[in-house]
Protein: RNA helicase
Organism: Zooxanthella nutricula
Amino acid sequence: RSRSRGRRSRSGGRGGGRSGALEAAAMSDASARAQAAADQAKEDANSTLVVDWSKTQRSPFQRLFLRPPGNIDAQSAAIAFARRAQLGIQVESDPRGVDSTPVPVGSFAELQVLPPWLLSAVGECRWEVPMPVQAQALPILLSGRNLIGIAQTG
């Protein structure tokens, strides 16, 4: 039998002698580096650049992404009301008047601002016509107006 069987080494069975001390020093060095990196990150976060927006000149932001195409723009108010009635859409409290609310679209392609890849993805999903809330909300939002839309779920 070996004499060392059942006995621990001088270091108490924790990696032995000098190599254990080197490992402990390396771990403590790594821990110190990690702490230094964390402290630097905190310092960087606390010293972020503060921009005084009142002193900067910005170009005006245009919210108008969609101008109704000619075929929709030329439709009479009666056609718009009929389309809304068919879809079960009610327009309330438009400050410009209900007649100025964009006409609901009958297809996603009518929007004419959606990129081809998006129209292709919509077609692959077999979404042929927008849901009623989409049909009315998309033209309103893309023309730069605010909207609160309420729709049935399910």
